[in-house]
Amino acid sequence: MRKIxxxxxxxxxxxxxxxxxxxxxxxxxxxxxxxxxGLRFNSKLFKMKYExxxxxxxxxxIMLGISKKIMVHVNAYASNMYQSNMKFEGGSVxxxxxxxxxxxxxxxxxxxxxxxxxLVNNPSGVRVNNNFYRSEEIELDxxxxxxLAGIVATQLLHKLALSLSVAYVNRFTxxxxxxxxxxxxxxxANYSFSAGYLLFPAEYKNFRQVNVNLYCEWLGSxxxxxxxxxxxxxxxxQFIFNSIARLDVSYRTQFSGNMQRLSxxxxxxxxxxxxxxxxxx
Length: 281
Description:
281 residues; mainly beta; Porin; twelve-stranded antiparallel β-barrel; two-stranded antiparallel ribbon; 1 helix; 14 strands
């Protein structure tokens, strides 16, 4: 029993110390605790570009800490972006392998390779007033089928965490969609820069203190077989409760770009709960 309690305390400490790199829109090079299971409920409210009003997407997620170097995410997607009613769109699997870790007191530098495969059943665009609009953006979180592979590096400096990533993304033809419908960009380079700062508490006294983190993330994509690009900014605030639960609130909007997209900004609300030491790794 004492060994189990010590293990849980160490896992909680790990969660707290690395809190400022629990980014909202991207993943850091660090992994979740080995042997843990995380449940996320992601919700996004999109302002549509070619029609009035908003659309909504639900994105439940299961996360597994396979080992200290490997973690896996499984997502499902549902939205009313391409039709008037909510419908199940598909799912994805994300994996990350941390291959470098240089740790020091109150700081560390880590690098990881990651990949994602998404299978989605959606049309290639939206129809508005007899006009059909297709998106050049390759968006694997519910809109497009495809694969992604990249590298991320994260530097923790006491209360500040910085992360940089670059990835190649390839669009597939969506399920039940004719191949000729894929007449937009199919290859792109994605890149991001994320910064997180631990605002509160100033000094840790116990595990029940609420953590407050501030984030600003820059996310971009450039077509590799076209001329389109976009560059977004996503500020966010995050609250961590009892070292195992978190609430994220974020707003993402396009800063610059010429890529045709169905939506250029959205609000995101994310809830997460972690079961530490849930299984033997």
